[in-house]
Prior knowledge:
Trigger_fact/SurA_dom_sf; peptidyl-prolyl cis-trans isomerase activity; 15 helices; alpha+beta; Chitinase A, domain 3; Triger factor/SurA peptide-binding fold; globular; PPIase_dom_sf; isomerase; 3 domains
Amino acid sequence: MSPLIRLSALIVPVLALMLALWPAAQPAMAQNLFATVAQVNDSVVTRFEVIQRARLFQVMRRPNVTEESALQSLIDDRLKQEAARNAGIVPTEEDISFGLEDFASRANLTGEEFLIAVSEVGIEPETVRDYVRTLLLWGDVVRERFTARARPSDAELDRAMALGTEGGSTRVLLSEIILPISAEVAAATRERAAALTEIRGFDAFSAAARRFSVAPSRTDGGRLDWLPLSDLPPQIAPILLTLQPGDVTQPIPVQGGLALFQLRALEDRRPPLAGQVTLDYAMLRFPAGTDLGAEATRLRAETDRCDDLFGVFKGAGEDRLQRLSEARSALPGGLAPVLDRLDPGELAVLPPRVAGAGGGIVMLCERAEIREEDLSREEVRQQLFIRRLEAFGEAYLAELRAAAFIETRQ
């Protein structure tokens, strides 16, 4: 059976969009598909790449996909690729193949099956491979540049575990400085931002806000009112939890500029950090030699939820079909990452662990947060580390974009 059937939930929006936009798209298609639509330093982006990226984003269920958003994504990719070249970072074919397999596994497909499926809606294999390759490149660039700065100290970790990292009723009192980052002032802005991160006094930060900030709050020395931690962007909240009053964040990219925040006070009204989940799932076991791919295809066509499995396998004993509910931390090895990729009603194949053994199919029934169970210290450390890396990466990309020569053409 065609892999397209297994990817139908992702592909249908693409087909609908193509049909809806076909009359309007004909003039653009009549143009030279390989015409340059943007120049980014010494690299170019073609019309063909923009069309391909927009289709790929539809398959990925990105919200509000337009040719403009696809173009901006490709411009960012050119900057990331250039940064990787300058750092001497080159992924191997084995790295790219592994990345493609991981990317395709989110749709419960192998890399080859994914490429076949998306080709049926006009997406070239190289479009997917280039996208995955850039993800790998950029990840290596960010880790190489910022790992040491992103790793939280024990004191910062203690504070984050005491306060939590999301939601709740914790409030923060901040001051802000927003610096412009246009191409003309990018270099000066980066130097100024680096200097401002060293400020510790409240009066000194307020004076700098009045002098350099372009935000309306500059007239009040950058001071903001109390803000719920849950209202802040997710890349900012964990960073603030590691600060002491008077500390200043690293530069954070915002619309049209770089932002620095000074923590003035933090009010804790919340319980300890909680982020563990209970996973309700159904497990099907099959004897050795079963074509698990064919079984999975059949079940996707016949079931929408876990209860349906008990109708398909009516009378099956617990050795064949079980429904289980466990904390994620208690799941057997290898199962948690599989269930993490699934939405309720989706299923995945579990290959045999050893030659000659039987395999299985798992379906996620429901995912529920456990508020009474704290995250482990290592889980909190990893969460903070990843979010800090993301924030550093976004700030670095904003700097690259501001300093680059970028010209778009209609």
